[in-house]
């Protein structure tokens, strides 16, 4: 039987993952009863860009550097869209939940940017307006996401 959205899986087009080094990752998030898949295809550092030029030459250099950062960001956003489309395609082509997991596991084995969190490795799930989605893993790692459908995700992972 084909996987049904909001019953067998939840697909969030863009979710944010807050990483320990103060960067923020963006990517599509897919949650099933067997675990979670997150494609980390775009990262941003909110503390970058605190340039303090003291003369014209430094200011021009800062503008050039900022323009290069923006150009690189557009390339990342393109791959972010491609990752979202690929995840949607995998969901659409899957004939069953097991086939969906097999395709996602194959993708995860070939691409280190796809975070795979099996349900067995999750110790606790916390959701809330301020908390977002927090996954505490059995190895002590904590993943903090910002996304929608928090109650549905918590129910599916319970």
Radius of gyration: 18 Å
Total DSSP E strands: 8
Question: What is the SS-derived class?
Answer: alpha+beta
- The chain-level mean pLDDT equals 83
Notes on the structure:
The protein has helices at 56-93, 97-110, 150-157; strands at 9-18, 24-32, 35-39, 42-44, 114-118, 122-128, 132-137, 142-146. The chain has 158 residues and is α+β, with helices and mostly antiparallel strands. It contains three helices and eight strands. The longest helix is centred in the middle third of the chain and has 38 residues, at 56-93. The protein is globular. The chain starts with 8 loop residues before the first strand and ends with a helix. Strands 1, 2, 3, 4, 5, 6, 7 and 8 form an eight-stranded antiparallel beta sheet that branches.
List the helices and strands and how they pair.
Layout: E1 9-18, E2 24-32, E3 35-39, E4 42-44, H1 56-93, H2 97-110, E5 114-118, E6 122-128, E7 132-137, E8 142-146, H3 150-157
Antiparallel strand pairs: 1-2, 1-8, 2-3, 2-4, 3-5, 6-7, 7-8
